[in-house]
Design goal:
The complex is a heterotrimer of chains A (about 425), B (about 300) and C (about 350). Chain A is α/β, with parallel strands linked by helices. Chain A is about 45% helix and about 15% strand. In chain A, helix 11 crosses helix 18, helix 11 packs across helix 19 and helix 18 packs antiparallel against helix 19. Chain A is globular, with a radius of gyration of 23 Å. Chain B has about 300 residues and is mainly α. The radius of gyration of chain B is 24 Å and the shape is globular. In chain B, about 70% of the residues lie in helices and about 0% in strands. Chain C is flat and about 75 Å long. The chains are: A alpha/beta (about 425), B mainly alpha (about 300), C mainly alpha (about 350). Chains in contact: A-B, A-C, B-C. Chains B and C meet through helix 2, helix 3, helix 6, helix 7 and helix 8 of B and helix 1, helix 2, helix 4, helix 5 and helix 6 of C.
Chain lengths: ~425, ~300, ~350
């Protein structure tokens, strides 16, 4: 509550700086200094645990947590649901005014930014990092320190209109880049308006593009932590991605809101999307689509997203918070959470039981998750991603040379820096 | 002219209305304006179409909303979106919050802004010019930069998660001052002079002479302020740390906008639910906008 | 009446807001009036100082520091950087693109919406007698409708192949553009939508202003043979000038802060950043946690708004000494007559 005022105060005149100085010692906790997380007390959780969660998770978690309270009778979980729309702003301002809850759900790509404010508590040993999908666990690590826990995941796979593929006489599950190219072109030749839709640019296009770069073997950061977005692998991926547009196989304008009906109608042969689309397509009364992992370039890869749970340093009930999070990371709990919300578990062990083990479509996501990659949790990632979105759009829409685009991305990304 | 006027007249219209009409026509165009009706009618259709689509689509199932090409008339009527909305949300609570905040914010602006607006318009006082410039100036600062400092301030005052925290920062807005000043400065000075002659103090002049003449402006300010407060999203979200204090737009955003996917049905039903009360308020207040001061003012 | 008015209103407002009382005799009265005026101002000013002035000063200070979201809990990491942020922003080509886009939007959008709204308001006020309430509500509808819901509809209306707008254009043999997909047409689409969305507010304001135009003046002028256009120019517009100025300033301020339309319509500024506005760019920087940069940009935008407002005050009040000067002359004459 005091600190951000101190921000202004500190930048103010000397007279008011005094006020700030009186309480500055406690705020000197730069992340680097407490890399080792404090242990969590033994025994059952007690007290009230305040949690912020977005959307459906926020709606369902309160009731779900009753099971936790049953195991820990002295603990209550108070969940506040927050709209996704402005959750980022809300968390940022809450950190500024020291009005944070004990636990908050945090989008995976925000981890770098919020962890570097020093507001997040490093993950204690009670949470075992090896029990998660490696890509998911990677999203919690900022500057070699883990913060929070990957709660649920999503990843992108290929959705193909089965009938359209059959009509074109091609497999709906292309295995390689070449296969994808030929099969989508064939579907288009067989009568579809377009073979595939790929996001051509604008907000979030990097989530569709980066899998191709990772498939080509590209890395966003090298081992020393330098940005490497102009490597030959990135150029290869840009060239491949561009070819869908220059060949007219993919449309530059993807209709918002009617993507599903277009896929159903066979106007598009295929699309790249996440697990939420299964439900939307089925609700629209359509079952004739095939899911397959994204095709392999040099290797297999996809984008891993989802959300993490983080504990704030100023949590009033830190022990309770971590115990609650640990409970949520248990395979059983994760499987039960899937039943409640359809959120895919971040723990592979949870995939071994129930629907998750038997449903063939979900199995595709399970397979894809093993090779899915997350962008590095660096504070400036969102900003660098915007650069990729912008340059990618020039590549797809105005035919910018992939090499030039890669150089432009690299230059701007270096100017922005990782922020670490 | 009045003959043709009569052709378009509703036979059930009251004599008073008729009289009014004749007078308006006399000061307006000299001919019956079927073309005006036509143009305004076409304009009206353009203006209202998206709204009608929104209302109709809120009665469609999700799949139909996403259909391509889109349908106008719902092929399947369903109240599903509304029932889902009302069962998932504690609607009365959020509605009350929104109403309390909007009513107080509106009342505050009506009182404080008209007072200062009057002073700006009709009293030559020390500091008038620079005070006006400062007030007007803050209207031009993009709101987003004030978000963090304002929230820090409000939390220092201990107002997080209170109605006061939701209301106080919006109780006195520069917009209202500017509106009232502009409107009052168009009123003739003679009215005030007359009041002064009669020995009325400034406050009596304001309350008894100026305010009654300000009805159109107050109604306008009322509508626009109410609307702004009613639709405000970011501030209530940031200040309310528990759901008990969420306002309607914040609550409606909860389940309709997902991380990756939007629920259009809920979104549209929510939009209709938010709009309905505002339309009602507008219907009530818009009558006051046309209450002419032309006749009550000096002639 | 004339004489007593003069007695009570000595040396009327020659230069508004001047501290030094220009006329000797008036000093005590003016002081009394100043006290009264500040009494009127007090509640507003108090709230204003706390909830507006202080955050503004804070954000102004942020614009000369390198503050980022990560410094929020470590204020001593923040350094004073002078005008570096402003230099950074001014050297950013994307900022200039956003500035050009915003300028385009304002220069075209403001006159269009002012003109159309005034015409509709006049029509509703004088020309239309039946159904006028119905019309008023209809024209105000877009203002109250949620932008998110509206965006869904507008995307359908603006579709390239079977969007309603292009279908209608097709009736006249015009091959409509790909509104939201073509960088040359995306901004006109934004303008179209913004005009549609903000007309209602202006119409309501203008309708309120039109109530101040005495019908008697119109009647007298009509008897003298003035036609509708002459009456509009010579009676309505001069009397409406404060209201018109208000509308213009309000619209200018609003349009320079173009934000919601591109946010929901073009996925945050596309295609090829052709609808990226300054406000949207500020919001983006704010989201990245670059508070210093975002503040600096905000104050550059603020500067642009101030300049536009000054220009509007000049354009809409300078040629307008008539009502006020007339009033003043009257009082002066009365004063000297005394």
């Amino acid at each position: 509550m005091r600190k951000p005022l101190r921000v202004t105060v500190a930048t103010l005149a000397a007279a008011t700086t005094l006020i700030a100085l009186t309480s500055c010692g406690r705020s000197d906790d730069a992340p680097a200094e407490d890399m080792s997380a404090a242990p969590v007390a033994e025994g059952e959780a007690t007290g009230t645990i305040t949690v912020w969660a977005m959307g459906t998770e926020g709606e369902k978690l309160g009731e779900f947590a009753d099971a936790f309270s049953a195991e820990n009778p002295d603990a209550t979980v108070e969940v506040t649901a927050i709209p996704w729309d402005a959750a980022h702003d809300k968390i940022a301002t809450a950190i500024a005014a020291d009005q944070t809850p004990d636990v908050s759900m945090v989008g995976t790509t925000w981890m770098g930014e919020f962890a570097s404010t020093g507001a997040l508590d490093p993950t204690p040993d009670t949470i075992d990092g090896t029990s998660f999908f490696p890509g998911a666990w990677g999203t919690t690590i900022v500057n070699d320190v883990a913060y929070g826990m990957p709660w649920y995941v999503e990843t992108r796979v290929l959705y193909t209109n089965t009938a359209a593929a059959e009509a074109a006489g091609v497999s709906p599950s292309p295995a390689t880049w070449d296969d994808l190219k030929t099969s989508t072109a064939a579907i288009q030749a067989a009568g579809a308006d377009y073979g595939i839709t790929l996001q051509a640019g604008q907000q979030g296009a990097w989530q569709t593009f980066m899998p191709f770069a990772w498939q080509a073997g590209a890395q966003i950061l090298d081992d020393e932590g330098n940005i490497t977005l102009d490597t030959p692998e990135v150029v290869d991926a840009l060239t491949y991605y561009q070819s869908f547009f220059t060949d007219g196989v993919a449309p530059v304008d993807v209709p918002v809101g009617t993507l599903e009906s277009s896929l159903i109608a066979g106007e598009f042969g295929a699309m790249v999307s996440g697990p939420w689309h299964i439900g939307i397509l089925e609700e629209a009364g359509y079952a004739d689509f095939t899911l397959s992992p994204l095709p392999a370039g040099e290797q297999l890869a996809s984008f891993i997203g989802g959300s993490n749970l983080a504990v704030f340093k100023n949590a009033e009930n830190r022990d309770g918070a971590w115990k609650f999070i640990e409970w949520l990371s248990q395979p059983d709990t994760q499987a039960a959470w899937y039943e409640a919300t359809s959120d895919l578990p971040s723990v592979p062990e949870a995939w071994e039981t129930g629907t998750l083990a038997t449903d063939p479509q979900l199995a595709i996501f399970g397979t894809q998750l093993e090779t899915a990659v997350a962008p590095p949790s660096i504070p400036n990632w969102e900003q660098i991603a915007t650069v990729i979105d912008t340059e990618l759009e020039k590549v797809t829409r105005s035919g910018l040379d992939p090499q030039e685009a890669a150089t432009a991305i690299q230059q701007q990304a270096e100017a922005i820096g990782t922020g670490l | 002219m009045s003959t043709v006027m009569r052709d378009t007249q509703d036979p059930t219209s009251t004599p008073a209305v008729k009289q009014n009409k004749t007078r308006t026509v006399a000061i307006g165009e000299a001919r019956p304006q079927w073309w005006l009706y036509l143009t305004l009618g076409v304009g009206l259709v353009v203006m209202v179409t998206p709204f009608v689509w929104m209302a109709l689509s809120s009665l469609k199932p999700e799949a139909e909303i996403r259909a391509n090409p889109p349908t106008w008339w719902p092929q399947t009527f369903t109240l599903e979106n509304f029932t889902e909305l009302f069962t998932r949300l504690d609607f009365p609570q959020f509605f009350t919050n929104s109403a309390v905040v909007a009513v107080f914010v509106t009342l505050g602006n009506l009182v404080f802004c008209s007072m200062l607006g009057y002073a700006f318009a009709k009293i030559d006082f020390w500091g008038r010019a620079w005070l006006f410039r400062i007030v007007l100036g803050t209207m031009m600062i993009p709101g987003i930069v004030m978000l963090v400092p304002l929230f820090v301030l409000v939390s220092r005052l201990g107002l997080v998660d209170t109605y006061a925290g939701l209301i106080l920062p919006f109780l006195a807005g520069p917009f209202g001052v500017f509106l009232m000043r502009q409107f009052i400065s168009a009123l003739p000075d003679e009215l005030i002079d007359a009041g002064r002659i009669d020995g009325a103090g400034e406050f009596r002049i304001f309350a008894q002479i100026i305010l009654p003449l300000c009805k159109p402006a107050l109604a306008t300010l009322g509508i626009l302020t109410f609307l702004g407060s009613w639709n405000n999203f970011l501030w209530p979200l940031v200040v309310a740390s528990s759901e008990d204090k969420y306002t309607l737009p914040v609550a409606l955003a909860l389940y309709s906008v997902g991380q990756n996917e939007n629920n259009y049905g809920l979104m549209l039903a929510g939009a209709v639910a938010v709009v309905a009360p505002v339309v009602l308020v507008f219907l009530i207040l818009q009558k006051h906008i046309i209450q002419g001061i032309a006749t009550t003012g000096i002639k | 009446m004339a004489t007593s008015t003069a007695a009570r209103v000595p040396a009327p407002a020659d230069s508004p807001g001047r501290g030094a009382a220009p006329v000797r005799r008036s000093t005590p009265l003016r002081r009394r009036r100043s006290i009264a005026a500040w009494g009127f101002a007090a509640p507003f000013v108090l709230l204003f100082l706390v909830f507006t002035a202080w955050p503004v000063i804070s954000s102004l200070l942020m614009s000369v520091t390198d503050i980022k979201s990560r410094d929020l809990q470590n204020p001593f990491n923040v350094n004073f950087v002078g005008l570096d942020n402003f230099a950074t922003v001014l050297a950013d080509p994307l900022f200039w693109q956003a500035a050009r886009n915003t300028g385009y939007f304002v220069v075209v959008g403001v006159p269009v919406v002012m003109f159309v709204s005034l015409m509709v308001a006049l029509a509703l006020n004088t020309g239309i007698t039946r159904l006028s309430g119905f019309f008023r509500v209809g024209y105000f509808m877009p203002v109250v409708t949620s932008i998110v819901a509206v965006a869904v509809v507008w995307r359908f209306l603006l579709k390239d192949d079977n969007g309603i707008i292009n279908v209608v254009l097709g009736w006249f043999g015009i091959d409509g553009p790909n509104w939201l997909g073509d960088p040359n047409w995306s901004m006109p689409a934004m303008i179209l939508m913004a005009v549609w969305r903000s007309m209602g507010t202006l119409i309501v304001i203008f309708l309120a202003g039109l109530q101040g135009v005495p019908a008697s003046l119109h009647e007298a002028a009509a008897l003298d043979g003035a036609n509708a256009v002459q009456r509009l120019r010579l009676i309505t517009v001069p009397i409406m000038r404060p209201t018109l100025l208000f509308g213009a300033v309000l619209t200018g301020i609003g349009y320079l802060q173009l934000f919601e339309e591109p946010l929901v319509m073009t996925n945050g500024g596309g295609p090829l950043n052709s609808t990226l506005s300054v406000s949207l760019y500020i919001y983006r920087q704010f989201g990245f946690g670059n508070y210093g940069i975002a503040s600096a940009m905000s104050y550059l935008l603020f500067l642009a708004i101030v300049l536009l407002t000054l220009l509007q005050f000049r354009l809409l009040t300078e040629r307008d000494p008539r009502p006020r000067r007339k009033a003043r002359q009257t009082t002066e004459r009365e004063g000297s007559a005394r």
